[in-house]
Request: fold
Amino acid sequence: MRINEIAALFDGTKRLFKEGSTLIYQGEVPRSGYLITKGAVKVYTLQKSGDEQIAAFLGPGDFLPMSWLFNKTSSSPFYYETVEFCEATSILRASIQKAITSNDDFRDYIINKLAQDQDSLLMRVTALEQSRATEKILFTLYYLLYQFGEKQQGSDHDYTINIKLTHATISALVGLTRETTATELSSLKQKGVLSYSKKIYTVNKQKLEQAVGEDGFSELVEKR
Reply:
């Protein structure tokens, strides 16, 4: 199903959010959830130091907070904040349950989405398990490629990651200092694994796989 077809299943209000807007706070009991139709949202917690620990990114076609919408939690377990201009449709708990039971196409969409989310989170775990900073960032790039990568026209290997990313955002995603993250990204840029301009990253998937020594995710990315 296309995103506009999914949004049309619900009677929710379409809302526009500027960059840096908090959709839902950790511990909040939401009045509604959201379907993201444009833009990207970071999912994070706050450490005792006040630093962010990013758990994941969500994009068009994602629902939030998933655990609350499916009656698994009574409140939101994370903060949800836009990382760029975002458009979202409000979703009530009852309406998503009704759509799943009454619409076969939507039920299939949710099942496929959950399967993709599991693969995505396993990529995140693989990245965080790495002992060296370089491998943490390489596997994180594969995660971002899977979530937001779009193959560039006229290129066999270059993918644009369609989400604005700063060095600070990536450091919070991988659990490294900004200085270490900047150094590692600069090194990968020199090796031709990636390039970046105005917070948008382009990754050469072939060189990324060679650097990681892993091509097992390749089919997942191509069939996303």
